[in-house]
User: Fold this.
Amino acid sequence: MNHLALEIRLTLASLFATLAILNLVLFIKIRYYAGPDDILVRHRIRTWWTLAGIFSLALCISPRGGVIFFGFISFLALKEFLSMAPTRRADRRVLFYAYLSVVAQYYFAGAAQYQMFLVFIPVIMFVWLPTRMWMIGEGSGFVKAVGTLLWALMITVYSLSHTAYLLVIPIDDNLPTAALNTTVIATHHPGPGLLIFLILLAEANDIFQYAWGKNFGKTKVSPNIAPSKTYAGLLGGVLSTACLAAVIGPLITPMDITHSVIAGVIIAFSGFAGELCIWAMKCDLKIKDFGATLPGHGGVLDRVGNLIFSAPLFFHFIHYCYS
Amino acid sequence: MNHILRTAFFALIVRPLMMVVLGTNVRRGELLPASGPAIIVANHNSHLDVFALMNVLGLKRLPQVRPVAAADYFMTRRLRCWFATRIVGIIPIDRSKVRRENGKHPLDPISEVLNSNGIVLLFPEGTRGEPEKMDDFQTGVAHIARRHPEAPIIPVFMHGLGKALPKGEALLVPFFCDMFIGEPLDNKLKKRELMHQLNAAMDDLASELPREEWT
Assistant:
């Protein structure tokens, strides 16, 4: 547990405390005013317990534990995508390579091999998968098949693997911008704090968006794709997320308050954009959810929508400013 | 059947395979029979179908579950025969024999299992055929229904395993398996009406997914 700073342990503990309070509130609510959505909410909270539990356990064991956790999430998300999106029978072998690339990509992330991590999917797989496809010799549907597969790898493996790299990212602690109030351990192992910062803000942004949209939302951002998303929700979400970032950023990450706010704004906007991308895909595929792996939420891909754009952007923001 | 090996195989190999590598999305799992006698009728795309179904039925029901399988395919090689009868616990039926022989009806082995409160898995397409494409159902299920009016017939539509391991392929590629369970059929109907009802139920279940040809 030496790699987890006291602040981070406290953050995790308060996360579980929040879940416990939510459970209690729900219990009391069901007792007095039972509603039709209670079961869904209960499933949703239970799934949060499971996710937060496995994630914290993985993080406590070693920073690499989180790498395996997100590798598995990537595998599930890729499987959901390829099960829902049309693929060609001739391409089964190519899909197999796509699955293998999960292992390689997360190896490069966990081993902090920066350049291989950056080029493996957008360069090497970008060349190899279409090559393997023409070798099979099936021409009809080629454009669609290549597009689907590379897009699948980019969102489910490449972008999500940035969460894993965040865990092992080396930080130059001589930089003057690094805040001084984090403990020594945290500056040497900034990864867990950065990752928790990203996930916490991305999820909080969803909640803020929902609350603002519900109370003040009028104009819809994209009525055809996501009827529930409004400008009020989006902007209120960004504002609240930036405020939350200003509070927890200096506590659990090496960032000072200015950088924390910028990071918060990046995560809020890109989280929203990623989420809408998932909605657009579901719209096109004519499905409601990508699966049923997470009771109360739908599929894994439905849950990580807010990370697919924010993870790489936040990662490169940190890398640019601190490495 | 070798019960110890069978349980071990389903707990240690089939379950991780179906839950981690492949994954099943079951809709209305509560409609599956709690105990026998019962007949589960499913479409057939892959060798994995039977494992997916048996995994969803769970280890508790495993001793009762017996899939009907082609004797002319599974009983030909020694190892395959041992695995099919001892581990999977198939009821072998010869697809080429349709008449009574020595006073024994070809469907008698199925009746025996149903009489001893078994859960029979039946793939009335009779073959895996083209992956992810439903063939016409054979009418054997109607014969069994007439002999066993007490056994409910539950239709199950499966999708995805034909992509994971289609006929004639050895490379397993992960895909989610969708498994949609339907309401029990009315097995007091005559043969033609029963088959009609079964086909309609299957089409209904299949239409829960957006239509997609796999070529």
Notes: Residues 28 and 34 of chain A are 9 Å apart (CA to CA).
